[in-house]
Write a structure and sequence with these properties.
Chain lengths: 166, 166
DNA sequence: TATTGTTATACTCTATAACTATA
DNA sequence: TATAGTTATAGAGTATAACAATA
């Protein structure tokens, strides 16, 4: 996780803007899975561009939120919560630790695991990310119309929940 | 693009299913960007699992669609259409060529570029993918309610278009 | 024996930069 | 000089498997 560039972010923004030939993708317009990917990429790129300026690491967001909401969580549960393998957490948590955003303490009851919690700096950092997330969400609201927000969120949650269930 | 496994696909499905501790991610529920990612991942995983069984390469789908709709397209335009750098196309197109799905012929008018088109096999392959995409879309429709499909698609396209524009 | 977390390793996807050949 | 496509290289993100410590 070296922080030099956020390659996918800006570049995706640039490229997407300048379509040279009009509508080469007409027949993908109706493919839900494809539009889902486009929207996700665009949303991520925009969010990354926003927080990138502030020198904040967007990939940490979900991690910080879950830790904040579940202080003392261990890595196994954390990895399940964010849907990634536990092995991928090691590096991220080390970075978060180095940045002074989280604290790991041995679980006295079970010496195999750690209890992870945000430090004060971690809470401030999260607050800053929330601020940007908020601004980003408002931008998305303006695009889709804020009354549609609830519907869209519900549909997305339904999709994720139902497709995963089995 | 060695075809041995489709790691993200099945594994994501498995993991997402068995949440051990309930709702560790409550406060991410309202974060549109996050739910967008979850839905996209789940959708991709489900589609990959479906076509994976049939030995079909889901990453090729968008490429094949665009080529089919724009026979004779060159790599520069193709790369813009799918939103990837031209350098990433080289390998994919080589695979598609090896698989006998596309044909590259020199553009006589401009010897630097190629004209890319689907072969008959490519068209059959695309038809098979479309079949699976169709089934997948129907499954998504059942989840969100088919009347909501149009709305969702519109919102996703709006998001992608507006966020990229600038 | 089973589980938590780490390490070693590998694979996918994508990008940038330098290059070749044409224009 | 500029453009189309290729190659070399790198990095982010993720996974699996083997391992050490602990249960």
């Amino acid at each position: 996780m070296s922080r030099k560039r956020a390659p996918t972010a800006e570049t995706a923004l640039e490229m997407a803007g300048s379509g040279p030939s009009e509508r080469l993708t007409r027949n993908l317009d109706e493919v839900l899975a494809y539009q889902l990917r486009r929207a996700q990429e665009a949303s991520f790129a925009a969010f990354a561009a926003r927080v990138g300026e502030a020198g904040i690491w967007p990939g940490w967001y979900a991690l910080l939120v879950v830790i904040n909401d579940n202080p003392g969580i261990n890595q196994r549960d954390l990895s399940h919560a964010v849907g990634r393998d536990k092995s991928t957490l090691t590096a991220s948590l080390r970075e978060l630790g180095k940045a002074g955003l989280i604290e790991k303490t041995r679980d006295e009851a079970d010496q195999r695991s750690f209890r992870i919690a945000l430090t004060a700096a971690g809470q401030r950092h999260l607050a800053e990310l929330e601020f940007h997330a908020d601004a980003h969400n408002k931008r998305l609201d303006r695009i889709i119309g804020s009354r549609n927000r609830t519907i869209l969120l519900q549909m997305l949650r339904d999709l994720a929940d139902n497709l995963s269930a089995e």
